[in-house]
Specification:
The complex is a heterodimer of chains A (about 140) and B (about 350). Chain A is mainly α. Chain A is about 45% helix and about 0% strand. The longest helix of chain A is centred in the last third of the chain and has 23 residues, at about 115-135. Chain B contains 13 helices and ten strands. In chain B, helix 2 crosses helix 5. Classes of the chains: A mainly alpha (about 140), B alpha+beta (about 350).
């Protein structure tokens, strides 16, 4: 089952990660980690302390990872916490490439070049597929 | 288009035309957008940033938007400062690291900064008070760019930005005003406090973190989530005409009650600009602010607002050096600025 709290990032309730891109467990956003006192984003690596210090997020997935802290910010700074404005013509829905990129960087750091090459090819294939969709 | 070609005109925001242009210098809207497949800039590697530039440039080309790209990473310092002075790039983009740039249209009314705080900062500027025209233009450009990009967007939170202060619409709607009479009659604080109560912010000429100078102020929205783009634009469209009205009344009051003092102030400012032999950019801006008000009140009749605007932009440090063709020290710039002003004002007459 997809994590319900992550489903806000997938317009049609699709899974955040695509099953075609197998992921190491360390790269999956998981609820238990997000609920720790200082959660860390699996995609960009920033933790809650870094976000609080800089006021900047590291990637789109952080809006879920630090949802509680961000929601407190909205309570005092925004008139409401739900978007009512413009909607793009198409919504990608999943952040699978973003997560795959993060895993690829980790694989390179760990000298797991075989895995890095696999992920690189998957990212390219996915981007090419999207590009073809755009062209039609 | 090259940077040197831009020196030939003052650019869109200083054209001095458009509705209410005696008080409203320009209207500006920007949209913050990010690509779904990359981390935000603070966590992006050099390779990521290079790929982001490449994706955005491809989408610009495919959109048929006719924007010329300038590589800010490889650009000389003087050219970067030149673009900051023209409000075409921010200080953050100028001082940033790694692959980054800006794409501009021929009239400089539309620009796309790549790899600033967000992957894309789309901006439209219109001379005078024209927020609806600016929204129409930027909404169309945004539509065309997104056709070939996968943007970070959530159904609940809207466009996802690097800073939660921009999430939702990602919009910043701003109007730059010249309010010298309200400044002189000590009414500005009262108005600015009222604006802050309705969640509008007041900033100086160059935006965030800058001090108001020469009675130029930028009023903009602070909220971005929970209201639509048109609602946020409307909140400024409702309040700006009131400020314009108050400034006009304050100018009339000054004319009626302190005409001699006002005439003296304007004439002295004009006199210094026509005769000085060394002058800083700050003093020039203050004096041009007085001359600008003098022209609008009919106290000076041998110069136009567009000529004042031309002097205003061309006496900024980087503009002065670009026109002169070489980098100069501060003292040299001050002498050159005074010479430039004397020569130009004589030509205008």
């Amino acid at each position: 089952m997809p994590d319900a709290r992550l489903s806000q990032f997938s317009g049609s309730g699709q899974r955040l990660m695509d099953p075609e891109i197998p992921s190491a467990s360390s790269s999956q956003p998981d609820r238990s980690r997000a609920e720790t006192r200082n959660p860390i984003c699996p995609a960009c690596g920033i933790d809650l302390m870094m976000f609080r210090t800089t006021g900047r997020l590291g990637c789109p997935i952080d809006y879920e990872i630090f949802a509680e802290a961000i929601s407190q910010f909205f309570d005092t700074n925004q008139p409401a916490s739900v978007h009512t404005g413009k909607i793009p013509g198409k919504i990608p829905g999943r952040f699978d490439i973003l997560l795959a990129r993060a895993e690829m960087k980790t694989a390179i750091q760990n000298s797991d070049y075989e895995r890095a090459a696999e992920l690189r090819d998957l990212i390219r294939a996915r981007q090419n597929r999207r590009k073809k969709t755009h062209d039609h | 288009m090259t940077i040197d070609e831009l020196t030939r005109s003052p650019g869109e925001w200083l054209k001095g035309t458009g509705p209410e242009s005696d008080i409203v210098i320009c209207s500006r809207i920007r949209l913050a957008r990010n690509l779904a497949d990359f981390p935000f800039i603070s966590r992006a590697s050099k390779t990521d940033k290079g790929e982001i530039v490449s994706h955005v440039r491809d989408s610009i080309t495919e959109s048929g938007s006719r924007l010329s790209y300038f590589d800010v990473e490889k650009m000389p310092e003087l050219d970067r400062q030149f673009l900051v002075e023209r409000h075409l790039i921010s200080r953050e983009l100028k001082e940033g690291e790694g692959p980054r740039g800006v794409a501009l249209n021929d009239t400089e009314s539309a620009s796309v900064m790549i790899n600033e705080e967000d992957h894309m900062r789309i901006q439209v500027m219109r001379s005078g008070f024209d927020l609806s025209g600016a929204w129409e233009q930027i909404n169309d450009l945004d539509d065309r760019l997104e056709e070939n990009l996968d943007l970070a967007f959530s159904q609940e939170l809207g466009y996802l930005s690097a800073c939660p202060t921009n999430v939702g619409t990602g919009i910043r709607v701003g109007v730059m005003l010249h309010l010298p009479a309200l400044g002189q009659t000590n009414h500005l604080d009262k108005f600015f406090r009222a604006l802050q109560k309705i969640n509008l912010s007041v900033r100086g000429l160059h935006g965030e973190g800058t001090q108001p100078y020469g009675d130029f102020y930028q009023i903009s929205n602070q909220q971005t989530l929970g209201k639509s783009e048109t609602e946020l634009i409307q909140s400024l469209s409702d309040v700006i005409p009131q400020l314009i009205e108050y400034e006009r009344k304050a100018r009339q009051t000054l004319l009626n009650e302190r005409r001699q003092v006002l005439q003296d102030q304007v004439s002295r400012a004009y006199g210094v600009l026509k005769t000085a032999h060394t002058i800083s950019s700050e003093e020039t801006m203050l004096l041009l602010s007085s001359v600008r008000m003098g022209i609008n009140l009919g106290l000076i009749d041998d110069m136009t607002i567009s000529q004042v605007n031309e002097l205003f932009i061309n006496t900024q440090p980087a503009h002065l050096q670009k026109i002169h063709g070489q980098a100069l020290a501060v003292d040299e710039r001050n002498v050159l600025r005074a010479t430039f002003l004397r020569k130009k004002i004589m030509e205008f007459q």
